[in-house]
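Moderator note: this is an archived Q&A kept for reference. The question asked for a predicted structure of one protein chain; the sequence and the answer are reproduced below.
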Amino acid sequence: MVRSLALSVEARDQHTGGHCRRLGKLAISLAGWLDLPEANGLICERAGYLHDIGKIGIPDSILLKPSSLTRSKWSTMRDHPTISEQILRPLDFLEPVLPVVRHHHERWDGQGYPDSLAGRRIPLIARVIQVADAYDALTSQRPYRQMLSPATALDLIQTEAADGRFDLGVVKIFVNRMAVSLSR
């Protein structure tokens, strides 16, 4: 059921095909690298699949726009985490996933959305999803930019962590483990 819900979003946007599956797997790996309890792996997988389900409530003219969004359209796009939470709330078994989907666009420096949470106020699994989401998005082709090499994506994520976007501790572990994986 979780995968079917995720595929409903990917069906609207051909450029994100496979993103949810890849993100779920990457988030599970990162949770393991962080030595999180095993139960968090399931939360990571489900959140990876469902983090963007709220995009089904975003008009195609915004969701599929191949260029920069206006301030007004960007404001609408920023609603997708709260829409995701509203869609998933009736499913009791997804209760642990709700704070993750709601807060996956918060920033370590408090400049994210929807609630401007900062630092450790952002749930740890949401911080895991943020990093895995960024990596997969950067290493995937999108209509508005070319995909980056894995090494370039890791460098950019480190730079953005230093600038306050991500949890530096999570990023450090992610980058170190991914660098080892890529060197094989």
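Archived answer notes: The mean pLDDT is 90.
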